[in-house]
Design brief:
The complex is a heterodimer of chains A (291) and B (268). Chain A is mainly α and 291 residues long. Chain A has two domains: 1-68; 76-287, MetI-like fold (Orthogonal Bundle), CATH 1.10.3720.10. Chain A has helices at residues 3-63, 71-83, 96-127, 129-142, 151-158, 161-186, 190-198, 203-241, 246-255, 259-287. Chain B is of the alpha/beta class and 268 residues long. Chain B contains seven helices and ten strands. Chain B has helices at residues 46-54, 93-104, 109-122, 138-151, 168-184, 198-204, 240-253, and strands at residues 4-15, 18-30, 35-39, 61-66, 69-70, 78-81, 156-160, 190-195, 207-211, 219-224. The radius of gyration of chain B is 20 Å and the shape is globular. Chain B starts with a strand and ends in a 15-residue tail after the last helix. The chains are: A mainly alpha (291), B alpha/beta (268). The interface between A and B is medium-sized, with 18 and 25 residues.
């Protein structure tokens, strides 16, 4: 073969390569575009939903002759609230940011304490029949009780409204985590247990390498549900306890007859709840595995 | 005194309807380095015998002795390969083997690492060591499971239908893979496996244990395989020994060999 033909051949090869590369990159752009289209579509539909809701809200507002403030008036107030969220003019007049911070701190403290109890007890319940027989009846009995009913008990025990609020969040955070953890642990497949048996895993190794990794997705689901309910309860709890927090803010604004502030607070509560949920969904996806 | 002695083994389970005897009167002496297959219909107590040897089930009667010592629970002297691979899905291939080695062996971290790597090398999975089991094919998963069992360097390997879920081609490769591991470790490991595949049993074993149907099943017959090793997948099926053995085993396991045996009258 002469050098000429060789050169030609290599050129055609390169050309072929280029074509392949081109089609590959155009394939990638295609995928990217279709993804963009899908995202755009979902945003569009979400906007339609919001518009429908806004329309209904405006209608209700005009129906009540502006007794119920409309979207525009509310958003103006919300804007003002967010413009200076951290002001502090004494115990009954704090910015929305400070109130929110107070609520989140309370929820996280109660939730953390609750989870610290619920996860180990849940593991115990899932791993041993006796553990289940000991704890399950108590859980069945106490789970349906509204967390607010615990408030007086918290007051008596801690003699402090702030602590009592943390206490009700603590109680609220227990149930979903307990039940999901117990379910996760009790559903560990026999196959995995056999591996531990056959290779003589110590209890510690079994716990770390089989029990926890297997039940972690269930535990996180429990935590996600728990923090959702805890966030629901905090608003009511702070209405009872007063003094600080987003729940107190709602109640205080209602007493000051500022419904714009009430609705703004509702919007903020919703967004924070959504963020909590998204955060835990993210963790859930991180720890889940493909069997 | 044999390497592994099963004496008058009986295993029964309490059920709501009373005692259920899975196997009884099992007597078997197995030598070091022997390859044994247990064959029989589903529910004939094959797995029960395996569990008694692995120590996962404690016999209700008789005993299983390894080197003169009664087996009272699982131990590092016996490696198990489960039917459904039983890899931990949240751990890499490397970690799956490492955790077993780490749990069983009392050597330095560096040596444990070397053991894992050399066993991965033997089953040709070096380039997949950081993958999760979910990313592997069935054959690869089973190779990991075999590497894990070999890694703890047990005297006895117990395989419960190890290749049952694999396609025929992969199955053939895996049988050779198993024999390769057996050869590389000096042919002194005793292998006991459950199988439903007559050809597989003949190809691999020195002896084939045929079980009666359950409940309360016993050993029906023990067939010796006198084929020279190394056996050749293509050649061994042509031998007189294979053909006689296969017929014998088929007759032991079933009495229907054609649709005519099932009452169909074939008109030409």
């Amino acid at each position: 073969m002469s050098t000429d033909t060789l050169e030609k051949e290599s050129k055609t090869k390169e050309a072929v390569k280029e074509v392949v590369n081109n089609s590959e990159s155009s394939g990638k752009t295609k995928i990217f575009l279709s993804k963009l289209l899908a995202v755009g579509k979902s945003i569009l539909f979400a906007c339609i939903g919001l518009l429908l809701f806004g329309g209904f809200w405006s209608f209700m507002s005009s129906y009540t002759e502006n007794q119920l403030p409309g979207p525009e008036a509310t958003l103006t107030v919300l804007g003002e609230m967010l413009a200076d969220p951290f002001y502090d003019y004494g115990p009954n007049d704090k910015g929305i940011g400070l109130q929110l911070f107070s609520s989140i701190t309370t929820v996280l403290s109660g939730f953390l304490l609750g989870s610290l109890i619920a996860i180990p007890v849940g593991i115990l319940m899932g791993a041993s029949k006796i553990g289940k027989q000991i704890f399950y009846p108590i859980i069945q009995l106490l789970k349906p009780v509204s967390p607010l009913a615990w408030f007086p008990i918290g007051l008596v025990v801690f003699e402090d409204t702030g602590m009592a609020t943390i206490f009700i969040v603590f109680i609220t955070s227990l149930w979903s985590t307990l039940i999901n953890t117990a379910f996760g642990v009790s559903s560990i497949p026999q196959d995995h247990k056999n591996v531990a048996k056959a290779f003589g895993f110590s209890t510690w190794r079994y716990l770390r390498k089989i029990l926890i990794p297997y039940s972690l997705p269930h535990i996180i689901t429990g935590l996600r549900l728990s923090i959702g309910v805890a966030w629901l309860v905090i608003v009511a709890g702070e209405m009872l306890s007063g003094g600080a927090g987003i729940g107190f803010f709602v109640w205080d604004s209602w007493n000051a007859l500022s419904l714009e502030k009430v609705i703004s607070a509702i919007i903020i509560i919703g967004i924070v709840g959504l963020l909590f949920d998204k955060l835990f969904t993210l963790i859930e996806n991180k720890v889940s595995y493909k069997a | 005194m044999s390497y592994l002695e099963i004496k008058n083994l009986e295993i029964s389970f309490p059920t709501p309807k009373g005692k259920y005897t899975a196997v009884r009167d099992i007597n078997l002496s197995i030598e070091k380095g022997e390859i044994i297959s247990i064959i029989g219909h589903s529910g004939c107590g094959k797995s029960t015998i395996m569990n008694a040897i692995s120590g996962m089930t404690i016999p209700t009667g008789g005993s299983v002795e390894l080197m003169g010592k009664t087996i009272k629970g699982p131990g590092p002297d016996r490696g198990v390969v489960f039917q459904n691979y039983s890899l931990l899905p949240w751990m890499t291939v490397y970690q799956n083997i490492y955790q077993a080695v780490d749990a069983v062996m009392k050597v330095s971290k560096k040596e444990k690492n070397e053991i894992v790597l050399s066993n991965l090398e033997m089953v040709n999975l070096m380039q997949h060591k950081d993958k999760l089991p979910g990313q592997l094919s069935g054959g690869m998963k089973q190779r990991v499971a075999i590497a894990r069992a070999f890694a703890i360097n047990p005297g006895v390997l117990l395989l419960d239908e190890p290749f049952g879920a694999l396609d025929a081609l992969t199955k053939g490769t895996m049988q050779l893979e198993l024999l390769k591991m057996w050869n590389l470790s000096g042919r002194d490991k005793t292998i006991i496996m459950i199988t439903h595949d007559i050809e597989e049993a003949i190809f691999l074993s020195d002896r084939i244990i045929v079980m009666n149907d359950g409940p309360a099943s016993t050993i029906r017959e023990i067939e010796h395989v006198h084929l020279e090793r190394p056996r050749n997948k293509i050649e061994f099926v042509k031998t007189e020994e294979y053909i006689t053995l296969r017929d014998r085993l088929l007759h032991l396991l079933t009495d229907k060999f054609s649709v005519e045996d099932m009452g169909i009258v074939y008109k030409k």
